[in-house]
């Protein structure tokens, strides 16, 4: 088990072989639940085991947390541990608690709102009153600083498994070229030290309307092809590009990110 640390922060470089949890950048003075003493360079430090950061799950692993009015489902195949759930206020998600999600500790409205924050589609819910998740009014793609593409809206992701309902609304798409779960991000950009800050230089042809289906296709050994009304936000949050058809880099080599410039041919990118 290898660690690096500076000041009051510890980062676990390798997965904890005992628990399978990854503790990255945990602040020592904020730890509270299920702490464990570890000796690092002769000094005692505490790290906490958070189920919200679990790694190396079987690809089929899913968990359902039942409540009286609403049930929450978590899909380990899609989770990239952004922690919109774990850092939410209240008692819906609490790291270290078993179970770590308790829908009855929040109102149904709160559960829906927090689950819908999940950018990867790993979290979904079943409202027992029969009200489904509402599709966003517009299709939006965010180019994350040194990270994936967050896309939300009325999504139709080609090849997505039928038991991944969340990616009909929200998805995190790989753009570093290293994911083992393409077209979805699996955080491989961290190990690869992918470097792109999310600037968008083009403006696009514009939109006459918003919303509607957004088709997302992964071209063989090539880019992501998005067709439908789409707004692209740069890493700084501004609406940078609007149009109805975009070819986006997913090999990580384009000089015109987030758009494809044909570099996948030169670098020999393989989509599988």
Textual characterization of the structure:
- The protein is mainly beta and 272 residues long.
- The protein has 3 domains: 3-49, no CATH class; 62-127, Alpha-Beta Plaits (2-Layer Sandwich), CATH 3.30.70; 140-267, 3-Layer(aba) Sandwich (Ribosomal Protein L9, domain 1), CATH 3.40.5.
- It contains 3 helices and 15 strands.
- It has helices at residues 108-115, 188-192, 263-267, and strands at 3-6, 9-12, 26-27, 35-40, 43-48, 62-65, 70-75, 123-127, 140-143, 149-152, 154-157, 170-173, 213-218, 224-233, 239-248.
- Strands 9, 10, 11, 12, 13, 14 and 15 form a 7-stranded mixed sheet that branches. Strands 1-2-3 form a 3-stranded antiparallel sheet, with no helix packed on it.
- A hairpin with a 4-residue loop joins strand 6 (62-65) and strand 7.
Q: What's a concise summary of this model?
A:
The chain is mainly β. It has helices at residues 108-115, 188-192, 263-267, and strands at 3-6, 9-12, 26-27, 35-40, 43-48, 62-65, 70-75, 123-127, 140-143, 149-152, 154-157, 170-173, 213-218, 224-233, 239-248. Strand 6 (62-65) and strand 7 form a beta hairpin.
List key phrases describing it.
272 residues; mainly beta; Alpha-Beta Plaits; 3 domains; seven-stranded mixed β-sheet; three-stranded antiparallel β-sheet
What's the story with the biggest beta sheet? 7 strands, mixed
Fraction of helical residues: under 10%
**What is Rg?**
20 Å
Going by CATH, the homologous superfamily of the largest domain would be: CDGSH iron-sulfur domain, mitoNEET-type
Cα shape? globular
